[in-house]
Amino acid sequence: MSEVSVTSPLSTDAASRSTTGVRAGSKTVGAPPVLGTYGRVAAWLSKRVEVALAQVELTLPQYRVLGILAEGSAAASGLADRLAVRRPSITALIDGLVARGLVDRRQEDTDRRRVELRLTPEGISTLARADVAVDDYLIAIAGHLPDKEEAVALRSLELWARAMVESRQGPRSDITAGDAASTATPARRKPRP
Q1: Which segments of the chain have a pLDDT < 70?
Q2: What pLDDT shows up at residue 143?
């Protein structure tokens, strides 16, 4: 098994390993290769998700839209906000999903100016196949780790999902206003000399 490290504002063990080396058997070997920051690893993982989605002919943005619509119908403006994209971008994305028969546009009964978006039965089926493809792909990647680390890697995705949901709900209630300002973005550690 080879070791790698990820540098981050919160990771201090990577720095200590780089000066002490890693013992392999009776030999001390150099520091493990650094993959980059958490952001780079997340981007790399995102690319792997895109590869898995290609099996069901979806792009990552399409998958995200289908996932949001699986939570319930939505208006295009609400989707744009959730996806952090401009409204014209979401319109083009929705047009493609409607053309494929995965999403249905319906005018609301109470306000005919408002258009609601819903998954079609084919959209539900495609999303289910995409979920399986992505899950299987990520499990296969994690399977290269020892059993305990594999479980930790997969559990960390569950924790990230929870953190993402909670971050949409606003600041944590146990953080004071002063603390909220200082924790709004992760602290950056000064670069090493």
Answers
A1: 1-35, 112, 172-193
A2: 94
For the full predicted model, state whether its pTM sits above 0.85: no
Q: Cα angle vertex 67, ends 64, 73, to 5°?
A: 115
1 is a domain residue: yes
| CATH classification at residue 83 | 1.10.10.10
Whether 7 and 84 share a structural domain:
no
Rounded mean pLDDT of the chain? 78
Percentages of the chain per state (helix, strand, coil), in multiples of 5: 55, 10, 30
94 found inside a domain: yes
User: Is residue 63 domain-shared with residue 158, that is, in the same domain?
Assistant: yes
